[in-house]
């Protein structure tokens, strides 16, 4: 049985096929695409999006959303960067990301769940607040030239596979188990289907929603740890397109934007397809300025196709769901 | 005669100046299908909402198995063994039958403090319930969204049974169903009573009521105006009781 954690409509196969076609086309179009150096770059650039996308998958499946993930990653990255600069032990530095992220997830949950503000508006408000917080914390300057302590640990390999890959696989495995093997998964999908019915069924709706915002925050914070390890700097504009990228990748992957259905494998493939397209277009000479156009277009296009196919329908008056 | 599962004594409900229900005495017995009849606004819905714990009565008392109870919420009613199947079934269409039957009270085992679902055992229990009800649903893994209206009623009934309900209240269970489906749901209702459950059925359909109910109670303008055993009445009498054309009702309404 799959009950929505893996979808039945073959979305994953279509995405896999799309990835393969894109790889073939770009390999022909650019001599730089099919090189081991570019493959490594592509995978490294997918790390944060894989983690943030995992959290976003849970949020969308629950009928929630978070448009502040980019800025939350930025705030957590500042924490990680400061810890790294202060020469704290590597373990503490690495954990600073998920801990700060979980704390900010708690704030989001307080606003959205306790404050009963629609998630898209609540997180948009937080986005504004945090944008200034980043500016204040960074004092208008980049955090740069950070030491390599964290980088060395996460880039270390075990059986030829980077530690980072193991950690990401572990995160996906843990979320998959929670979704498929524990009551949490059923409760999350029931809330995504209808919060009212979930409440009538005796599901602790507030607790499940809190937990999900906190988990998504922690995953976004973990992405910040990887970000700092990868780039060893934190710039003012960090995470500007992350929410768009994550929502687009997750929706591409077959998770319902209205909740009640999700696919983890779809999210992985959605992230890879998005990054392949962005990387490939860059290599064939399309300026990176056009990347958000591609991402936004894909997001809107997929939703319009689903509506046209009758698989999705949005209320046309008002924007608050159900 | 054993004591009724539930006894209502002098139940009244006022909403401000409006009296929705007054002086209702009613016994509900295990193993019996009791039909509540009456026009819109007669007070049936208010009455079952009091039984279900969704409203508190303004006066009067409820006794469950002889002991007085007071329900602050549907959860309280549920813990006294009362389950209500509302017309809009509270089922999650995206989850399977088995998942819906257990939703909110899953069977689980703790491994390292993590509650893991006992999917196999839940499936077996649901399979047994479906077979017992003769619900003709072969796959408890099918999503509820793929089921017909009658099959969804069967899932909701399974859910009530699985909560160990001793009184199942069904609000217009056949209102939106095709003929064959209606038959099926009515036979499920019968089977529920044979299993020892008390069943309260609200319906506007007199022929449905005569097919399954052992006893009928007619509400009119917030009062219980008649109570009849099926054997002692006929559809014409019941209709005249509902509309108020019956001499008994006219006499009653003149005295008030």
TrEMBL record, chain B:
Pfam family, one: ABC_tran
Gene3D superfamilies: P-loop containing nucleotide triphosphate hydrolases (3.40.50.300)
Keyword Oxidoreductase attached: no
GO molecular function terms attached to this record: ATP binding
Domain ABC transporter: 6-246
Domain of life assignment: Bacteria
The entry's keywords: ATP-binding, Nucleotide-binding
InterPro entries the UniProt entry points to: AAA+_ATPase (IPR003593), ABC_carbohydrate_import_ATPase (IPR050107), ABC_transporter-like_ATP-bd (IPR003439), ABC_transporter-like_CS (IPR017871), P-loop_NTPase (IPR027417)
Stated family: Belongs to the ABC transporter superfamily.
UniProt-recorded name of the protein: ATP-binding cassette domain-containing protein
């Amino acid at each position: 049985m799959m009950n929505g954690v893996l979808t039945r409509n073959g979305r994953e196969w279509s995405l896999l096929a799309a990835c393969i076609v894109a790889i073939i086309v770009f390999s022909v179009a650019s001599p730089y695409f099919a090189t081991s150096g570019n493959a490594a770059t592509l995978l490294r650039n997918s790390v944060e999006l894989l983690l943030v996308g995992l959290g976003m998958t849970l949020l969308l499946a629950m009928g929630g959303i978070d448009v502040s993930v980019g800025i939350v990653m930025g705030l957590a990255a500042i924490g990680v960067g400061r810890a790294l600069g202060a020469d704290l032990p590597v373990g503490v530095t690495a954990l600073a990301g998920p801990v700060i992220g979980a704390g900010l997830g708690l704030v989001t949950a307080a606003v959205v769940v306790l404050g009963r503000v629609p998630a898209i508006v609540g997180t948009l408000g937080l986005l504004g607040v945090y944008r200034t917080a980043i500016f204040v914390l960074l004092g208008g300057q980049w955090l740069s030239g950070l030491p390599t302590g964290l980088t060395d640990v996460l880039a270390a390999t075990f059986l030829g596979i980077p530690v980072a890959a193991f950690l990401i696989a572990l995160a996906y495995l843990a979320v998959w188990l929670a979704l498929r093997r524990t009551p949490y998964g059923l409760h999350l999908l029931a809330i995504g289907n209808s919060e009212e019915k979930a409440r009538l069924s005796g599901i602790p709706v507030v607790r499940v929603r809190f937990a999900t915002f906190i988990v998504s925050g922690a995953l976004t914070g973990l992405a910040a740890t990887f970000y700092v390890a990868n780039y060893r700097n934190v710039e003012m504009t960090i995470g500007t397109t992350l929410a768009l990228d994550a929502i687009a990748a997750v929706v591409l992957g077959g998770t319902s934007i209205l909740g009640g259905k999700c696919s983890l494998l779809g999210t992985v493939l959605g992230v890879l397809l998005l990054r392949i397209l962005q990387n490939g277009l860059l290599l064939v000479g399309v300026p990176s300025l056009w990347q958000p156009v591609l991402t936004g277009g894909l997001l809107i296009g997929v939703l319009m196709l689903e509506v046209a196919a009758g698989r999705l329908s949005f209320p046309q008056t008002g924007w608050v769901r159900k | 005669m054993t004591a009724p599962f539930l006894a209502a004594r002098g139940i009244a409900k006022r909403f401000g100046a409006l009296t929705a229900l007054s002086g209702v005495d009613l016994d509900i017995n295990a193993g019996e299908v009791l039909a509540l009849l009456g026009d819109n606004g007669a007070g049936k819905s208010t009455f079952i909402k009091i039984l279900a714990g969704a409203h508190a009565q303004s006066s009067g008392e409820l006794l469950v198995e002889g002991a007085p109870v007071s329900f602050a919420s549907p959860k309280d009613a549920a813990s006294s063994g009362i389950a209500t199947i509302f017309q809009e079934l509270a089922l999650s269409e995206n989850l399977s039958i088995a998942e819906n039957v257990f939703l909110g009270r899953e069977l689980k085992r703790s491994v390292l403090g993590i509650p893991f679902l006992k999917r196999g055992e839940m499936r077996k229990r649901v399979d047994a319930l479906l077979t017992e009800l003769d619900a003709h649903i072969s796959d408890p893994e099918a999503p509820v969204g793929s089921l017909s209206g009658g099959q969804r009623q069967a899932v909701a009934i399974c859910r009530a049974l699985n909560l160990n309900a001793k009184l199942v209240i069904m609000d217009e269970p056949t209102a939106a169903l095709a003929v064959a489906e209606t038959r099926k749901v009515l036979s499920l209702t019968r089977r529920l009573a044979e299993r020892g459950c008390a069943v309260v059925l609200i319906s506007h359909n007199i022929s449905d009521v005569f097919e399954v109910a052992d006893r009928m109670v007619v509400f009119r303008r917030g009062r219980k105006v008649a109570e009849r055993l099926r054997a002692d009445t006929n559809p014409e009498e019941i209709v005249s009781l509902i509309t108020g054309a019956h001499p008994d009702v006219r006499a009653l309404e003149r005295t008030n």
